[in-house]
């Protein structure tokens, strides 16, 4: 009888032990799984937080040519006699910064007007005045010897522009949709990365650059002192007449044209950059005074081949990004650009694929002023070096 009681106690004890062992095993499984998850998560999120390794880079900017507008006599630039067509002094006066209502605006002599977005009719800009169109939609811009007109940030001009004796004009990342754009006696002008559906007539002007635009209307240059026409897609006609310092490169022209008449000019500047580091450097973005810069050609100074886009080519001109510079190698970079402020220094910023950069300041009359090497860690390029 005593033996039977001992046997029953032993069985109850075995069941208790089994429960304890099962619970202990579950705790061990949870601990092991937690360790595995921790190791995986630490590796994954650690990689996301630390990012790619930034290799140290060293460049030397050996020389810089002047990014000038070309040599011409600015005082000899005169629009066609008779005054500007389509100009009126009527309309709501615009001075300072406004958000527009749907009316016609007028900028009086010497005043400054900035219009942010919105939709309105047209604007007339009188002599010595300045206008900035920061986005928005309008019908027309008419000018009478103004000091400066700047059109940016996807502004949409639906009906055309009449620019007469403008001292400085620039249009970037915007749209001249239809109608006619006439530039008569404009001293300095740049069109960059625009969609230009309007008929473009450029005559009697000083120094004009069209770079990386898509153009579908008829375009004609006549009696302009300096023309730089680069990286454009032209689906309309294109003609040059009596433009003595004319340079064109890397354009796609699908309509009738006389590109051969654009001659006598050359790229307006250049940089020589030496990669003094131990790693290959790839510049994939360039900025000139904070604007994207596409009108470039580059080639290595030594070696037998270079990486141009997705292909390996013999050493020679390449017009696509990135600019690939092997260690201890010099690259020649030439560019076509018309400086809208021909007496002020310009900032040149070149970004590499690891987001380090090289910054330089170039004076249009004196060439290279100063340059800074890239940083081991990325930083925002603010101001001049």
Average the pLDDT over all residues and give the rounded result: 82
Percent in strands: 35-45%
**Uncertain stretches:** 39-56, 375-385
Structural class: mainly beta
Provide the domain count: 2
Question: What is the straight-line distance between the termini?
Answer: 101 Å
Treating each run of at least 4 consecutive H or I residues as one helix, how many helices?
Answer: 1
Trace the largest sheet across and list its strands: 2-4-6-9-12-15-18-21-24
Number of strands: 37
**Biggest sheet architecture:** 9 strands, parallel
CA radius of gyration: 32 Å
How would you sum up the global shape? globular
Helix % is 10-25%
Notes on the structure:
The relative contact order is 0.12. The chain contains 1 helix and 37 strands. The N and C termini lie far apart (101 Å). The longest helix has 49 residues. The radius of gyration is 32 Å and the shape is globular. Strand 35 and strand 36 form a beta hairpin. The C terminus is likely disordered. Strands 2-4-6-9-12-15-18-21-24 form a 9-stranded parallel sheet, with no helix packed on it. A 9-stranded parallel sheet has the order 3-5-7-10-13-16-19-22-25, with no helix packed on it. A 7-stranded parallel sheet has the order 8-11-14-17-20-23-26, with no helix packed on it. The protein has 385 residues and is mostly beta strands. It folds into 2 domains: 116 residues, Sandwich (Immunoglobulin-like), CATH 2.60.40; 188 residues, no CATH class.
């Amino acid at each position: 009888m005593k033996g039977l009681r001992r046997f029953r106690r032993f069985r109850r004890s075995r069941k208790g032990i089994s429960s304890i062992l099962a619970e202990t095993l579950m705790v061990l499984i949870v601990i092991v799984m937690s360790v595995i998850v921790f190791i995986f998560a630490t590796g994954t999120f650690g990689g996301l937080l630390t990012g790619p390794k930034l290799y140290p880079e060293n460049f030397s900017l050996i020389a810089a040519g002047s990014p000038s507008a070309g040599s011409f006599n600015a005082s000899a630039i005169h629009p066609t006699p008779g005054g500007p067509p389509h100009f009126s002094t009527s309309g709501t006066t615009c001075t300072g910064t406004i958000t527009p209502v749907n009316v016609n605006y007028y900028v009086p002599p010497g005043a400054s007007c900035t219009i942010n977005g919105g939709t309105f009719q047209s604007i007339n800009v009188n002599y010595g005045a300045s206008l900035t169109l920061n986005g928005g939609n309008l019908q027309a811009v008419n000018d009478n010897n103004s000091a400066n007109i700047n059109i940016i940030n996807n502004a949409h001009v639906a009906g055309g522009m009449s620019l007469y004796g403008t001292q400085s004009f620039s249009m970037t990342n915007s749209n001249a949709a239809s109608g006619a754009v006439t530039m008569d006696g404009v001293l300095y002008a740049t069109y960059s990365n625009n969609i230009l559906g309007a008929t473009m007539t450029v005559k009697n002007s000083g120094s004009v650059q069209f770079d990386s635009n898509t153009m579908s209307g008829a375009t004609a240059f006549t009696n302009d002192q300096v023309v730089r026409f680069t990286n454009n897609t032209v689906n309309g006609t294109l003609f040059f007449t009596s433009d003595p310092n004319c340079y064109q490169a890397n354009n796609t022209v699908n309509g009738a044209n006389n590109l051969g008449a654009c001659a006598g000019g050359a790229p307006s500047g250049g940089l020589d950059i030496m990669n003094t580091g131990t790693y290959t450097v790839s510049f994939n973005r360039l900025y000139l005074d904070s604007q994207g810069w596409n009108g470039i050609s580059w080639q290595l100074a030594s070696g037998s081949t270079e990486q141009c886009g997705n292909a390996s080519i013999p050493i020679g001109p390449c017009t696509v990004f990135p600019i690939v510079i092997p260690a201890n190698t010099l690259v020649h970079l030439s560019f076509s650009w018309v400086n809208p402020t021909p007496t002020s220094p310009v900032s040149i910023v070149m970004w590499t694929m690891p987001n380090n950069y090289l910054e330089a300041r170039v004076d249009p009359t004196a060439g290279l002023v100063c340059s800074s090497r890239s940083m081991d860690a990325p930083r925002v390029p603010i101001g001049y070096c």
